[in-house]
Specification:
By secondary structure, the chain is of the alpha+beta class. The protein has two domains: 56 residues, no CATH class; 52 residues, no CATH class. Helices cover 26% and strands 21% of the residues. A four-stranded antiparallel β-sheet has the order 1-2-3-4, with no helix packed on it.
Length: 121
C-alpha cells in the first residue's frame, strides 16, 4: 500500500506522476463496484468469527414440532425412551404450549398433564 504522503508528493503543483505512480495511486483505492475482502477490513475478522460461532450454535439448536415434547426425567425414572409419570415436559399439546408434569394417559391430551402454565395458540 502506498502512503498518503507519497501520493501527495506525486501531485504537487507543477509535478506530474509517472504512469506507474498514477496506476499505483489508482490501485490504492477500492472502486465502489469492487467487493472488499473481509481480510482487508481492519477489525472485521473477530466479528466474522463471532457470527460464525453463533451460527454454529444455532445449527445445533433443536426445534420441537407440534406433539413433540422436551422431557426432563423425574428422579428415579430411568427409561429415556418413554415418557413416564412424574416427568416434567415442555412443548405443544393440543393447541397450547405447556410446561407441566406428566400424570399418565394419552400424551396428546391436556388431561394427561398437571399444567403449570400454558400459552394458547
Amino acid at each position: 500500500m502506498i502512503s498518503k504522503e507519497n501520493i501527495k508528493n506525486w501531485f504537487k503543483t507543477g509535478l506530474k506522476p509517472t504512469q506507474e505512480q498514477f496506476w499505483a495511486w489508482m490501485d490504492s483505492f477500492w472502486h465502489k463496484d469492487e467487493m472488499i475482502p473481509i481480510s482487508k477490513i481492519e477489525g472485521m475478522q473477530p466479528i466474522y468469527n463471532a457470527i460464525n460461532s453463533q451460527n454454529t450454535q444455532l445449527a445445533k439448536a433443536k426445534i420441537y414440532a407440534t406433539g413433540e415434547l422436551q422431557v426432563f426425567k423425574f428422579a428415579g425414572n430411568t427409561n429415556n425412551g418413554a415418557l413416564e409419570i412424574g416427568d416434567f415436559v415442555v412443548g405443544i399439546v393440543g393447541n397450547q404450549f405447556i410446561r407441566g408434569i406428566y400424570i399418565g394417559g394419552d400424551i396428546v391430551s391436556l388431561a394427561s398433564f398437571n399444567v403449570y402454565d400454558s400459552i394458547e395458540f
